[in-house]
Write a structure and sequence with these properties.
Blueprint: H1 4-16, E1 25-30, H2 34-48, E2 51-56, H3 61-73, E3 81-85, H4 89-92, H5 104-108, H6 112-117, E4 119-120, E5 123-124, E6 127-132, E7 134-139, H7 140-145, H8 154-170, E8 177-180, H9 187-198, H10 217-229, H11 243-251, E9 255-261, H12 263-268, E10 279-282, E11 297-303, H13 310-320, H14 323-333, H15 346-351, H16 355-363, H17 370-373, H18 377-392, H19 398-414
Parallel strand pairs: 1-2, 1-3, 8-9
Antiparallel strand pairs: 3-11, 4-5, 6-11, 7-9, 7-10
Helix pairs in contact: 1-2, 9-10, 9-18, 18-19
Length: 417
């Protein structure tokens, strides 16, 4: 693995020589991993002579979005590099530098699906800092106890979850549930529902050509099946669960299966976890004849077109996307790299044993249709997850709610994406 810092040292010597006075002063707005990036950026500063000030973003995504809108609307020159989710790129595309022509080395060592998720209208608007996708967590001890194989289809999951749940309750654990997921009305429910629908052959809500496809029989059947989980194999309160609520049930030892992002792997193996050493992970199920469709989540770093130090800012985002930094993030934070080779790296696998399983998840991950909807994505997303949550909560049938989604999206499309 080549050393990006070594490359930077060479270019810094050529560019700056001993004249540190010519170094640029950059700002980098980030939230998650703030302390980690502070340490990594010290290497960049040493190699280039540039100075980087970190701006600590709030935890709430809505607050970050609001701050970004303010900065970009004002053409703020004081912020050079910003952490940004892939689903936000379309909304801010006019304010970002196209990195496609200056990041060939990064593109060449990154999953194509990740590059695609960071590309809008042919422009590469971000370089990856980490990728993510969901896995099916399962209690291998309970499956072995009852002679069950890990489920490959959603119907197998439903049946196995119910059988083990009922037998465990009969054996003295009345709090056991078969399956927990994230049912609260927000973007994570969009991810869950897209996984159910796509892996059942029901499409992607809106297809690449702009066709609104969500109102179809397979999508209806997928949501009705999920509705049937609520109160049978999933707690009634799952309709208000986010990541942490579902993890809480799972990690206390009261769930057979859990759909969850990879961050829960390390936490599930913590010393105080009731499932430590008792679980394993696998790709999400799919209906017969279909393929697993995990929703790909990517966060990248972008360069503001208002930056007065664009070249140095580009070097910074290339450094943060390097295999070296991504390996450090995988080891220290448990982050999913965007570089395929790191999923088989012996150090990474030793620290994060689920990495080889995740490689296929990232490679085949599904992308939300935010690129098609551009600045209207948040509206469309809200329309969709509200209808799904209504279905799970018993407020109308899946057919009625998806018909409503189709009508609302058609109206949205008519007013211009």
């Amino acid at each position: 693995m080549k050393s990006f810092v070594g490359t930077l040292c060479l270019s810094a010597t050529m560019a700056f020589g001993a004249n540190v006075a010519s170094a640029a002063e950059l700002t980098f707005a980030t939230g998650y991993g703030f302390d980690f990036f502070a340490t990594e950026i010290a290497k960049f500063e040493k190699a280039t002579g540039n100075k980087v000030t970190l701006i600590h973003l709030p935890a709430a995504p809505s607050a970050v979005l609001s701050q970004y809108r303010l900065w970009f609307a004002a053409g703020d020159k004081s912020v050079d590099v910003l952490a940004m989710k892939d689903i936000w790129l379309s909304a801010f595309a006019d304010h970002l530098v196209d990195l496609k022509g200056v990041a060939g080395d990064v593109i060449g060592e990154t999953f194509p699906s990740i590059i695609q998720s960071l590309t809008v209208d042919g422009k590469l608007l971000a370089l990856p800092r980490y990728s993510d996708g969901p896995l099916l967590f399962y209690r291998k001890d309970l499956l072995e106890k009852y002679g069950k194989a890990p489920p490959k289809t959603w119907d197998e999951l439903t049946a196995t979850a119910k059988e083990i749940q009922d037998k465990e309750r009969a054996a003295g654990n009345p709090d056991m549930w078969g399956f927990v997921f994230q049912g609260r009305g927000n973007d994570t429910l969009t991810c869950n529902a897209l996984e159910w629908i796509r892996s059942s052959g029901g499409g992607n809500i809106i297809e690449q050509d702009g066709t609104i496809s969500i109102n179809n029989e397979k999508a209806v059947a997928a949501l009705e099946r999920a509705k049937g989980w609520v109160g049978t194999i999933s707690p009634p309160g799952v309709v208000s669960y986010g990541e942490e609520e579902s993890r809480g049930v799972w990690q206390s030892g009261n769930a057979v299966f859990m759909r969850q992002w990879t961050y829960a792997y390390q936490l599930s193996n913590a010393d105080d976890s009731a499932v430590r050493g008792k679980f394993d992970v696998m790709p999400l199920p799919a209906d017969p004849g279909e393929v697993s469709a995990p929703t790909l989540g990517v966060k990248g770093n972008v360069v503001s077109k208002y930056s007065e130090h664009q070249q140095e800012a580009i070097e910074l985002v290339k450094f943060l996307a390097s295999a070296e930094v991504q390996k450090d993030a995988a080891l220290q934070l448990g982050d999913m790299p965007a570089v395929p080779s790191l999923f088989d790296d012996s150090d990474v696998v030793a620290a994060q044993p689920f990495m080889p399983t995740m490689k296929g998840v990232i490679d085949g991950g599904a992308i939300r249709p935010s690129v098609i909807l551009k600045s209207r994505w948040n509206e469309a997303n809200t329309i969709f997850f509200t209808a799904v949550n209504d279905t799970l909560s018993g407020k109308g049938t899946a057919a009625e709610n998806l018909e409503r989604v189709e009508a609302q999206l058609t109206e949205l499309k008519g007013s211009g994406w």
